[in-house]
Specification:
By secondary structure, the chain is of the alpha+beta class. It contains five helices and 19 strands. The chain has two domains: about 130 residues, Uridine Diphospho-n-acetylenolpyruvylglucosamine Reductase, domain 3 (2-Layer Sandwich); about 80 residues, UDP-N-acetylenolpyruvoylglucosamine reductase, C-terminal domain (Uridine Diphospho-n-acetylenolpyruvylglucosamine Reductase, domain 1). It is found in: Cytoplasm.
């Protein structure tokens, strides 16, 4: 039987007909605990990334504040190496534990865990826990940096709108959002889905939007960018 692993549902578009097979979702207090041991932080895969960021800030550990504004759970963030221009979650990982398809609990450490641009070698695991190595810092200074990053992201991204996050990966040396913008597609609407006029790499949805509305905008953006710039945009989101 086929199965899918669901984190926080971010960077994910589910078709209008739903999903065939089993959907596994890690949640509950048992998978959301956060423990601190000196500069190492261990957290369950079901914990929201936001909770982990704020917890580390409060105990004076720096590093993860660069991820502020990124939604989702720890498991999903690790699987897709969530991040931005300031850094990615993978750079802080000491170890990751998870279940294989055979039900074996394994732990990958150090060079056994590899990360790339929005990818990792963890996609074969049902992630249950991870440990991060951080650096001590001044709580007030870390908080200041975090708030500055949040204000900048809020000004340039539609963080309060319904969306699946960035739709496309940035081509090497380029910005997917800028390419879509320069193709004249900002604000373009199909049905009840719209290419954000704040950041063109986001497709926001309004009431009664369908997955088909979003898919048609994705196809339009890919087509226009390829036509004007000769660039093939690669999806960052997953489509089930």
């Amino acid at each position: 039987m086929s199965y899918h692993i669901l984190g926080g549902g971010c960077n994910l578009l589910i078709g209008d007909k739903g999903v065939s097979g089993v959907v596994i979702h890690i949640s509950g207090d048992g998978f959301s605990q956060i423990t601190v041991d000196d500069t190492q932080v261990t957290v369950g895969a079901g914990a929201p990334l936001t909770h982990l960021i704020w917890h580390t800030v409060k105990v004076g550990l720096q590093g993860l504040e660069v991820l502020v504004g990124i939604p989702g759970t720890i498991g999903g963030a690790l699987r897709g190496n969530a991040g931005g221009s300031a850094g990615d979650i993978g750079q802080f990982v000491c170890s990751v534990s998870g279940l294989t398809s055979a039900g074996e609990l394994v732990t990958r450490r150090g060079d056994e865990v590899t990360f790339g641009y929005r990818e990792s070698n963890l996609r074969d695991l049902l992630i249950v826990e991870a440990t991060f190595g951080l650096q001590p810092g001044d709580t007030d200074e870390i908080t200041r940096r975090l708030r500055k990053s949040w204000i900048m992201k809020k000004a340039t991204q539609p963080l309060t709108a319904q969306s699946a996050g960035c739709i496309f990966k940035n081509p090497r040396g380029m910005s997917a959002g800028l390419l879509i913008d320069q193709s004249g597609l900002k604000g373009t609407r199909i049905g009840n889905a719209e290419i954000s006029d704040r950041h063109a790499n986001f497709i926001i949805t309004h009431a009664d939007a369908t997955s088909d509305d979003v898919l048609r905008l994705i196809d339009l953006a890919k087509s226009k960018v390829n036509e004007q710039f000769g660039v093939d945009l690669e999806l960052e989101i997953e489509i089930w």
